[in-house]
Hints:
Layout: H1 2-13, H2 16-25, H3 40-52, E1 56-61, H4 69-89, E2 93-97, H5 108-124, E3 129-131, H6 139-150, E4 156-161, H7 167-174, E5 181-184, H8 199-215, E6 220-223, H9 227-240, E7 247-252, H10 257-265, E8 270-276, H11 281-290, H12 294-302
Parallel strand pairs: 1-2, 1-8, 2-3, 3-4, 4-5, 5-6, 6-7, 7-8
Amino acid sequence: MEVMLRNLFQALGKSRSANRLAKKYGLRFGAARFVAGETIKQSIDAVRRLNQDGRIATLDHLGEFVFSEDEATQSADMCIQTLDAIANSGVQSNLSLKMTSLGLDINRELCVSNMKRILDRAREHGNFVRIDMEDYAHCQVSLDIYRELREQYDNVGIVIQAYLFRTVQDIQDLNELGANLRLVKGAYKESPQVAFPEKKDVDENYKKIIQMHLKNGHYTAIASHDETIIDFAKQLAQTHGIPRVQFEFQMLYGICEELQKRLIKEGYRVRVYVPYGVDWFGYFMRRLAERPANVWFVLKNMFK
């Protein structure tokens, strides 16, 4: 049953018609638990509340369904406006983005141009931009563009997914760049030809790449709500004398808040991924697919 629900939510997340319907009805039925709002102001207010108890953030203007160059340009403009809002408000937050929202599927050079505009503005503000990794079909081109951008920018990082077979080699290849990486398990439905189908294998690979990147001496964002993984990273750092300034724990907005606060009290850096925007449906469906138990939270909201 759980597998069926996961497959259903992953399919809905890619549905254009379902996305249009979701936009019509807004952030209802529990989505507001995981999405900070539809406007920049709402997202900045959410980050300010996080900052008050020591948590930092990364803001993501959601957008995955981009079908024209104009839409891609508008999405890039929103990223720039978000960077400006972060600077003007004084909140502690980076920016995260998906390159498909910047036109990656339309025109590679358009996407690169939009990325450079965003990185230029981030550099003006002394800020940092994280490229989110998407499905396997976008993995290689995302890494290629990241390498191209690193020739000109040092304020950009990327995400690496533990569930892909290729990931260990990617970590080795990125070592020469001193890449700032967010390491995740992975949230997309992938073929067993390219990804580990079993959770235990994903977990073992996740631990392996965390150890590789930390011991290589590079900044590591460990993005997980799994306390077994978090405890592994803590012990690894202690055993090998890895300073806490070399890594941070990252979690999603609205999930495991008590764990986030506990880590802050223990002296660790915690960054919360804060999504906002009208194009929130695909993100919301992936959160439900990752943990179908969240569905009961949504159902309760529907009948309030």
